[in-house]
Automatic annotation (TrEMBL):
Domain of life of the organism encoding this protein: Bacteria
Keyword Transferase in annotation: yes
Swiss-Prot/TrEMBL keywords: Glycosyltransferase, Transferase
Keyword Glycosyltransferase belongs to the record: yes
Identification of the protein by name: dTDP-Rha:alpha-D-GlcNAc-pyrophosphate polyprenol, alpha-3-L-rhamnosyltransferase
Similarity field: Belongs to the glycosyltransferase 2 family.
Molecular function terms, GO-annotated: glycosyltransferase activity
Database matches in PANTHER family: GALACTOFURANOSYLTRANSFERASE GLFT2, RHAMNOSYLTRANSFERASE WBBL
Length: 252
């Protein structure tokens, strides 16, 4: 079984329009944790489509919300070592066929964490720079200015088979459920940014593998609010950026 954790932050309309999610919920357990008060439309959508909606404990960070969902799963479901915990953004569109293929690959490859090939457009012509080497001090700030200047991003065009990578965006991360638990989930000292880098770094330090699957594709229409200089998202980004690098210094 794959337990899918989706954090809603005023994405109600986007989620209600996601027809693929309706199909996915027939096969896998979909849990939407609303970080803002859920609309009547989203509440009705979840009820009609057999989707669990947790409309409680609002205004948490990305990592803390996903940890909340994981703890809910542990309390209410009978999980086993063969299950997976998928962290997926609300603005991701993936088909049931692709998700089933992902599960098949995961069971065959036996890695610990997986990510897939994300694109910005429905035609799969504009790849997202979603897999990267662990960041240097200057790398993320170059990315704030222009995504094309990220020297730490893997060249997806050169990858045609599953391979291990340093870290991948938290918009889509599939964890072996025992691995997520052994890592203690996301570190809640981060808020909105760098939770994904941190958990991948900790996984790496524990010799867990993160595998990128290039043939499994999905669309991610991210907002990239952290690129709006001096916005609250920018300052959240800076704080998490400094927290991460200070943390790596103390663990060397």
């Amino acid at each position: 079984m794959i337990y899918i954790s989706i954090i809603n932050h005023n994405h109600d309309e986007l989620l209600v329009r996601n027809k693929e999610l309706v199909t996915i919920a027939l096969t896998y357990t979909v849990i939407i944790k609303s970080n803002t008060k859920a609309s009547a439309a989203l509440t009705e959508f979840a009820k009609r489509c057999n989707i669990l909606l947790l409309d409680e404990h609002h205004q948490l960070g990305f990592g803390e919300n996903n940890n909340y969902v994981f703890e809910y799963v542990k309390r209410t479901a009978t999980i086993n070592e063969e299950d997976y915990f998928l962290v997926m953004n609300p603005d991701i569109t993936i088909t049931l066929a692709a998700l089933s293929q992902l599960e098949s690959h995961a069971r065959r490859l036996g890695s610990d964490i997986y990510t897939i090939n994300l694109f910005h457009d429905d035609a799969f012509s504009i790849p997202e720079l979603s897999i990267k080497s662990f960041p240097l001090l200057s790398g993320p700030f170059k990315g704030l200015i222009s995504r094309k200047k990220r020297s730490d991003a893997y060249n997806k065009a050169a990858i045609d088979a599953p391979c291990d990578v340093d870290w991948a965006a938290g918009s889509f991360l599939l964890f072996d459920i025992t691995v997520f638990e052994s890592l203690g989930g996301f570190d809640k000292k981060y808020f909105m940014y760098f939770e994904d880098v941190d958990i991948c770094k900790r996984a790496h330090n524990h010799n867990y593998r993160l595998t990128y699957l290039p043939d499994i594709k999905a669309v991610h229409k991210g907002a990239y609010a952290n690129r709006k200089i001096f916005s609250k998202h920018f300052w959240w980004y800076v704080k998490s950026y400094l927290t991460y690098h200070l943390s790596t210094l103390t663990t060397r």
